[in-house]
Predict the 3D structure of the following.
Amino acid sequence: MRFLPPTASTGAESVDSLYYFLVALTFLFTGGIFLSVTYFAIRYRRRDPRECPRPVHGSALLESAWIAIPFVIVMFIFGWGAKVYYDLSVPPTDALQLYVIGKQWMWKAQHPDGQREINELHVPLGRPVRIVMTSQDVIHSFYIPAFRVKRDVVPGSYTTMWFTPTKVGRFHLFCAEYCGTEHSGMIGWVTVMEPTDFERWLSGAGAEGSMAATGEKLFQRLGCAGCHRSDAPGRCPPMTGVFGSSVVLANGQTVIADEQYVRESILNPKAKIVAGYQPVMPSYQGQVSEDQLLSLIAYIRSLAAPGTTEAGTAVQPQAAPPAPQPRRSRVSEGPTTITQPERRQRK
Amino acid sequence: MSPIVTELPKIHYLNAAYGLKSWLLTTDHKRIAILYLITVTLYFFLGGFFALLVRLELMTPASDLLRPETYNRMFTMHGIVMIFFFLIPAIPAIIGNFVIPMMLGARDLAFPRLNLLSWYLFMAGGLFTLYVVVIGGVDTGWTFYVPYSSVYSNSYVVATGLGVFITGFSSILTGLNFVVTTHTMRAPGLTWGRLPLFMWSLYATSLVQILGTPVLAIAVALVGIERIWRVGIFDPSLGGDPILYQHLFWFYSHPAVYIMVLPAFGVVSELVQTFSRKRIFGYKFVAGASIGIAVYGFLVWGHHMFTTRQSVYAGLIFSFLSYFIAVPSGIKVFNWTATLYKGSVSYQTPMLYTFGFIGLFTIGGLTGLFLAAMGLDLHVHDTYFVVAHFHYIMVGGTVMAYLGAIHYYWPKMTGRLYPDAWGRFAALLVFVGFNLTFFPQFLAGYLGMPRRYAAYPEEFHLLNVMSTAGASVLAVGYLVPLIYLLWSLRHAPLAGPNPWGARGLEWQTPSPPPTFNFEKTPIVTDETYEYSLEEEEVV
Amino acid sequence: MSTRWRRRKLSESTNALAHQFDDLEQQARSNTLGMWAFLATEVLFFGGLFTAYVVYRHAFPEAFAVGSKHMDVVAGTVNTAVLIASSLMMALAVQSAQLGLRRPLIMFLLLTMTLGAVFLGIKAWEYHHKYVENLVPGVNFVWEGPLRNQVQMLFLLYFIMTGTHALHMVIGICLLTYLVLGARRGRFSREYFFPVEIIGLYWHFVDLVWIFLFPLLYLIGLHL
Amino acid sequence: MTVHITPRRTYYLVFAVLMILTATTTGVAFIDMGPFNVVVALFIASIKAVLVVLFFMHVLHVTNLTKVFVAAGIVWLAILIALTLNDYLTRGWDPISRPF
């Protein structure tokens, strides 16, 4: 009988170490309590129904000891747990970018090059993978036990997770947040492949064109391009170089233009107006699906200028440690005609 | 030790009046406790029945016994019935109602009619919930997470929510009654430093009920409003934030864990002293820890939300604060253990439950450290690890203590003893059955089995079979006391006022006590739990 | 309530001691404390709504400012004044009860109720206006301008918060009616006035809630 | 129990102050003070609340125990709001989860 799921990511090992430590601690304390209770119960068992033991009124020393020692131990656990959590929350900048949409009751995944999967996720060995997730209906939770990662998938906003697979194989993918009738059917498989196999799989998976390309078409069709022109900045901020940069808003605040910000700007454009522009953009709430939103985001991401993204864009292929992916550079293709001064000007 | 008793007192609270009306309109706290005992027991077995169906379904990997939609209703109803209609009222409303005025040397609670109203509200809320069970159930999980509960569920969310809302007010009024009673109804000489530890823990519980429950009430009410009028307080498609609901929900529902377990701490503090004939080790620390847990419990709710969209920084703060709770919980366990030292330990039924409680609560508490460690929680959150953890606290802790308390106060309630051998046998069954049921769930959880799954992959099969086998042992363990306790009502020997040789004002009145508890208001001159004085009295 | 108990209470108006207490002082102390504990519950009950308000106002500042222009500031201000005046009447009623003055007690209680009713009347008139303007979420909410959902959130909170508050007012008026009936029968005296006092506490609390609701709902976007 | 009976004049005075503050808060709302509008509005509301609690609700003359209960309600409300905002105000700080 197995007691651990497969350990198939870099994070899995750090989670397991913490787990082993806590298991040992639990055995230590439970054993201590169990032995003391048993010993006292036998040693001081009632031998005479009338016996009346002398009182022991407590000891300040003991009390402070069992306040202080557990406190130090739990603070140590807190620190360790927080470290593991933080590492599991902040993706490296060179991660491969994937998109996942949860809906009752299936997982839809899409690769930047446009390959779509349902209840399956193919990832390459040894590359950090960052997943941007949202839900079309209720809250789900994307859970891969073998990687020891889980994040809720919340409608109306994006959450992210990341991992670096360290083992080739097929691993469970579960929905961990109760989401309705077929909750237990909302499961699938994550397949970790050797990078070369992964390349082969990608090219055979039949994409209809990269997400950025789809997004660009949408950008034209929805009429965004008429306003958000990079050649003639006028009524609307141009989209080149925006993604990942800090944007100064009309109310003086500064936000980082990440997925969440782009999403909000499409659905609810008047919520955060870029400084220097008028709130003229209509809302696209109800007109774009979650899929299309992700494509638009992939497109706008692809317009980011080199070296300016905060996470996950394929801007420095050389920097990716194992197996640089030539394919990834496609993400940054497209009309990247931005220059640094232009960006600074918009700030 | 206690003299042989040959007859019950002539007039006591049970025979002071007869007829259904004398019960349904009673303001006697002891009779209201009996009303609660009967209804809460019914709910316990109803919730247990749902649990049994859940376990039977999980005996095989496929969802074959129940369809998924039925399964989802079963685990939801199990959770709602057990939490709101068993765990929260069990010890406060039954044991607390029965003994608090006696412990304080008072004739009744401060507000007897309010107490009866609490029971009626409890019944009204319960009837709504039963009505939902009859017409088809609710499938949101006891957490009512939006937007599933407010928009997507096809079950009876509003009626259930109303039931929970009403029951919440029953809980608030009970807590309010206890708090005021503790402040104003203490007998002369009964200072705070002399209060029984059960009083301290129920006082702490009541604070949580008063200050936490209204937030749950409003959160559930908002879900109802959103569902009825299709407006978007939490619905993201209408601009709301579903995470806000989780904040409001857990602001109550984490402290609610302490509503369920603090009374159990109080019970164990009483039992461990009576059955080792020794004053508690470190009275002030144990008493203070109760208040500390109640207050501190409100600062940690975000640890239920590490995997949601809650910000990393909020998570860090909540995780940090959560670990502080380990300290007062640790104080309690260590002090209970130390109380046994150089005591006179007897192995009567209530004490066996106490031993069980200490062990299982220790495991339950320590596994809480796993869940509060943020990095590890990313893996075990919403898996069977969590299920096992809170069942170790709720069933291994609260239910054990509740059964211990029932066995401890049964002679006071009914005037009769029960067959102790059967009692010890049942305690053993419960302990074994419990561990067999829930220990495998820790393993299944770390192995990655998500909770609330009607069907699961093959690799979790063996662990689930073990769990289901344990659940059937547990079920027998719960039925045995029901039988012999009912039997004892007529056939068991009489108990006398103080069958355990316990200290405390409640043992100084006849069993069963008269309607107003004491002939005249007692005056307290001793420190609490002075077992050493007994020697002189006995000799 | 046992009939024996009720009979005792009716027959001996000055001796209104319940069986569980030793003296009237203990009874009054317990009841006052009980009411304060209940008010703590009420603070947290409204607290859930205030939390939702804070979160959404923080998220949608512009929408809340724009939406609040549709609140009737005059009605809100007048209502605040009316409610504070009713609180004053309640305070004077409690004082009359403390002094054992029966007729002023009844008069001030009736004035409190009247002002409370005026408040509810103005509130109802406001609600009606919102209905006519198609601003009732879940019923007929129409918003042509931008940020529809966010503005709707403001009106949703407006109706839930003021609605909950109004419900408390209605309960308060019922309790006051009970007091008036009791006062007419001469149940209250210098020794036994705590029912007036604790219902007074409740009434003042409802006033307190409004003191915060008023600026938060009506006075957001006036200077825009 | 000694009952402290507040003279009527005090009630009238408090009432007058409350009325003035109500007029002030409405008047001030028409002046644009940026983020300070909220601060001022809540400050005035708090003063009004304190006046009502101290004089109308007699907290000036009650036992310490009652004061503890009053404080408990306020402190717990603060916990609820503060720790909820602890999430919302820090969402913008990291690249993982952002305000909506």
Remarks:
- Residues 68-104 of chain B form the longest helix (37 residues).
- The mean pLDDT of chain B is 93.
